[in-house]
Amino acid sequence: MSRFAPGARVRVRDAWPERSAPMHLRTPHYLRGREGEVQRVLGTFPNPEAIAFGRPGEPRPLYHVLFEHKPIWNEGQEGDTVMVEIFEHWLEEA
Amino acid sequence: MAGEPTAESIALLDKLVAALKRRGVMTEEDIQARVASADRASPETGARMVARAWTDPAYRELLLRDGSAAAEAMGVRMAGNPPLGVLEDKPDLHHLVVCTLCSCYPRAVLGYPPHWYKSVAYRARAVREPRAVLAEFGTALPAGVKIRVVDSTADYRWMVLPLRPAGTEGWAEDRLAALVTRDHLVGVSLPALQGATQAA
């Protein structure tokens, strides 16, 4: 079961676990702490943070999340966007 | 980037392959089949999918709903490949695909990625200054078109369904497919009639 539906406002966790231990993360650093909108539930996939180290990857819901471009970089054109696959355990309600 | 493999890396690969065969993980036939399928994959497959979507509304609907099934319908074996998602360009929205973390690419329908797609410069810049990157590819979007960068960070692979160029009404699928290149399917440029200038 996925926690967020299309249209939900979400925030990417402002977490930096790679600073304390070697990690394999699929959440781009430029989105940490950023708010976006869920576009689509893409399905459930084994957690890459575990399988990268040969551990069993429990299934995690994956979302396509849309972000405004300009607030991320403080430059660019109004209305441009970036859409990124984010795993559920990296998202919180905004 | 790669250069010639060293004797050491070849010896390591031989040992790995031998161990995988010994344990029954794969056979020589599996390896040959995989090599053949990787070599066969080319942007022509993606181009044929786009041309069919331009002419066949039912196929277009399938392509946008389930890219993997749409690829299978064109004879591509998708088993073992990540799911394919297709991004529909609209008159006011253009998609650009990048993988900022590594170089994820829809190889099953586009073949091997070009070197620039894997470069640090493209990966860093496409997501930050997509309009400057498009300009360097010689691509001018019509006024009012918004850009949506799709950063391919996880388990899907993404391909763009570009707009059908004006002036191609009544064209057959094969002729349309010949208009579509790899760069259009990544989104760094737009299909156009040869000799025609893109609207500024």
TrEMBL record, chain B:
Ordered alphabetically, the record's keywords are: Metal-binding
Nitrile hydratase alpha/Thiocyanate hydrolase gamma domain segment(s): 13-188
Q: Which residues form the signal peptide?
A: none
Q: Where are the transmembrane segments?
A: none
What's the protein called, per UniProt?
Nitrile hydratase subunit alpha
Species assigned in the record: Sabulicella glaciei
